[in-house]
Amino acid sequence: MKKLLFVGKQEESNRNYLNELNNLFSGYLQIDYCYHERNKEILRGNLINDADIILLTNPYSLPDARPYIKPDTKILTMDFSFSKETVNALKDFPVGTEALVCFKYYSDAHQAAYTLYELGVDNLNLYINYENNHNLIDKKIDLAIIGRDTDCVPPGIPVLFDVGPLSLAMSTIMDIAVMADIMDDELESRIIKHCSRLSFPDNHISYFFDNSSMVHSQLKAITNCIEYGIVIIDEDYDVINCNNLFRRMFHISGNVAHLNLKNIDELSHYMDCITSNSEPTNKLIESSDKNHYYLFSKEKINKSDNAHNIYMLLFKDITDIHALETSFQKQIVKKGHVAKYTFDHIVHSSDMMASVIERCEKLVKFDKPTLIVGESGTGKELFAHAIHSASSRAKYPFVAINCAAIPANLLESELFGYEEGAFTGAKRGGKIGLFQTANMGTLFLDEIGELTLETQAKLLRVLEEQEIMKIGSDKIIKVDTKVIAATNRNLKNLVEEGAFRLDLYYRLNTLMVNIPPLRERPEDIKTLVHFFIKQEKGRSMKVSDTLMSFLTSFNWEGNIRELKNCVEYMVHLNDSSLDITDLPEYLYEAYLKSNLSVTDDAVFPELNSSDVSIISTSLRLIKSHTPGRRRLVDLLQQSDLPVSEHSVRTILQDLRERDYIVFGAGSAGCSITKKGEAFLTYLSKKTAPSRSDQPSSLQ
Questions:
Q1: Angle at 511 (CA atoms; ends 100, 443), nearest 5 degrees
Q2: Both 666 and 530 in a single domain?
Q3: Angle made by CA atoms 423, 427, 430, in degrees to the nearest 5
Q4: 55 in a domain, yes or no?
Q5: Which residues contact 554 (CB under 8 A, 6 or more apart)?
Q6: Distance between CA atoms of residues 237 and 260, nearest Å
Q7: What do you get for the CA distance between the two ends of the chain, in Å?
Q8: Could you report the per-residue pLDDT of 83-101, keeping only the tens digit for each?
Q9: Pairing label, strands 80-81, 167-168
Q10: Angle in degrees, 0-180, between the axes of helices 215-223 and 170-180, rounded to the nearest 10
């Protein structure tokens, strides 16, 4: 019987490994051990000389042992792993938790951090505890991950997580079996039992296939330990091997030798995925009757061999999970807590906006509070929807609240919820707050600059501790909610005025998005105008050059919201094309002021200032009397402006063509339009209603 020597540092910290070695290899190997930290002299004994395999818990032990090892002795450095329960418990901590790995020995802490990342614990930001670690300067640690013999946990860490006894990793066990050449069905059974408690990384099967010298046994042992249906096939889709779960999934019995996947009826519906040249990872597929859902992955596992192709197919049954998620999504949609927009919904053509969107697409990778700054109407909520939709939280709720729309005394109960009887009028059974409603998702706080200082303090605690307390309760509730805040105010000025907390400002300012106002990106205006026209009309409309020129040069203090209202007004009054006279009154008056202020000739090129005075008087008289042509002649003469009836006819016709007046039916007089009133206001500022000394061409 071959001898295996286990070399550790201390007996207490390695007792569990030694017990596992004895349980696994009893009857196959003689297991001896020594602990060199207790007595280095023991390394010089017969144990070292007689060993066929030496298993070191630490590579730094090798120099001490090397002089006493036989030339043909095989040497292994041990890898350890964690139980499924330990890994799953660590995965339950909120995303972004700052965690410090505190083991007695640096090498163990380093391996623990690396192994946890391999096992998919990517919700934690892991740091290794050692002296003068510059990564820990000013770092607020939320969690300490410790081993049972740890004696070096820094003070002040609120949560300690004991990983419990560590276990021999599958790779170490299989390497021992290969080196000793002792694998049989009994040992394989023991290994499967041992490994069924362990957690495995996603790529463990292809790793062992590429690196092990005992492929068949390793695959068989590994594949029966995990919750995937696994089949290994060649390039002709002939089965090389499969695990028991794959057999149960697709009702396969008997010998799989020479079995081809194309001849398995239960797999016929999935053959397009299986035979595809692509190698998908976790692709959602469903059975033909839609009663079963799987995550399907395909990978070539003999990557170094270009002559032959061997593939591994994985099927993960997620039917129950899919049903729960579907139910959850229906509840979210029913309540309206979903993001409606993505970055594709942000209409733009300017490089400036393209740059903002590109920045946002990078920021969504970081699960941190985000602050969106921009003037009113720039589309801050649209960006909040898009950021959520592109984030890892997209499948979870998106909840929006306008902080300025709710009275300050009610806002806290909306955000944090309350217990029954917390205050007069509280609902029976209490109420869940928006932070809990948005758990796992995103809470959008619009107009955050309107929060009271008291509410700001409570919000800061949620952002830092990821926990809330309902009004009227003393119970702490953990939440995992991303906050996106938006404001059209200058928060830095509010901080200087004492109206906004500096610490909250910096907490929100971690990831900031500044949306430029519409006047700084006129290239977007033309694109937006045509977009809003098609949105309202369902088709395109011609827009005159004069109108588009005005729209692209206007200041738009209300930004996109104001532009949208303007376009909606115009398209509802017209059905064919849009011109400058279709503008809303206040915008048309702005157009007149900006375009007709240089010279009155721009209005009626053929008229002098005396003519303009006659026109303005005519408009005032029409506004107050709604006269016919002859009546207007009389009124002008009474105003000491004698004008012939022929001239009045010409004036009225010009005013009508410009949509300043409308003629009544039959003998009814004419009346001024709203555009005419706006034009009259402009003329009144330019010309006094008195008679000019310059002779009129209309008299």
A1: 90
A2: no
A3: 85
A4: yes
A5: 519, 587, 590
A6: 6
A7: 130
A8: 999 999 999 999 899 999 9
A9: antiparallel
A10: 150
* Cα 623 from chain centroid (whole Å): 58
Helix (H, G, I), strand (E, B) or coil at 645: helix
DSSP-assigned letter for residue 602 = G
Considering the domain architecture, whether residues 422 and 345 belong to the same structural domain is answered as yes
Say whether both 446 and 364 belong to one domain.
yes
Dihedral angle at the C-alpha atoms of 49, 51, 56, 59, nearest 10 degrees?
50
Quick check: is 174 in a domain? no
Q: Is the CB of residue 353 less than 8 Å from the CB of residue 393?
A: no
User: Across all residues in the chain, what is the average pLDDT?
Assistant: 84
Whether residue 353 is contained in a domain is answered as yes
Neighbours of 79 (CB within 10 A): 17
What gap in Å lies between CA 160 and CA 149, rounded to an integer?
13
* Structural domain contains residue 227: no
pLDDT at 206: 45
According to DSSP, the β-strands at 143-146 and 159-162 are parallel
Report the number of distinct structural domains present in the chain: 5
The residue type found at 358 is: E
- What is residue 125's three-state secondary structure? strand
Residues near 435 by Cβ (< 8 Å), separated by ≥ 6?
A: 415, 416, 417, 443, 462, 468, 479, 481
Can you read off the two tokens belonging to residue 413? 């109960």
Q: Are residues 534 and 506 in the same domain?
A: no
Are both 549 and 607 inside the same structural domain? no
Q: How far apart are CA 153 and CA 540, in angstroms?
A: 68
What is the rounded distance in angstroms from the CA atom of residue 598 to the CA atom of residue 19? Answer: 97
Give the end of a domain, one of 583, 613, 628.
Answer: 583
CA gap 463, 457 in Å, rounded: 10
Cα 257 from Cα 238, distance rounded (Å) = 8
| pLDDT tens readout for residues 560-575 | 999 999 999 999 988 8
At 217, which amino acid appears? S
538: left (phi over 0), alpha (psi -120 to 50) or beta: left
The Cα 105–Cα 59 span in angstroms is: 12
351 and 475 part of one domain: yes
Q: For the chain, how long is the longest CA-to-CA vector? A: 134
The whole-angstrom separation of Cα 189 and Cα 328 is: 40
**497 shares its domain with 359:** yes
CATH number at residue 531: 1.10.8.60
pTM of the model: 0.48
Domain co-membership, 413 together with 497: yes
Query: Are 434 and 401 within 8 A, CB to CB?
Result: yes
The closest alpha carbon to 138, from 90, 97, 98, 93, belongs to 98
Rounded Cα distance between 380 and 488, Å, is: 9
CA angle 673, 678, 680 (to 5 degrees): 90
How far apart CA 181 and CA 192 sit, in angstroms, is: 18
- Give Cβ neighbours of residue 314 (< 8 Å, ≥ 6 apart): 205, 228, 229, 230, 295, 296, 297, 298, 299
Cβ 516 vs Cβ 353: under 8 Å: yes
Domain region containing 664: 600-686
Reported as a pLDDT band with limits 50, 70 and 90, residue 690 is: very low
| pLDDT tens per residue across span 133-181 | 888 888 899 999 998 778 788 999 999 999 988 999 988 998 898 888 8
Of 78, 100, 127, the last residue of a domain is 78
Residue 576 per-residue DSSP state: S
Token pair belonging to 200: 């495995």
452 torsion bin: left (phi>0), alpha (psi -120 to 50), beta (else)? beta
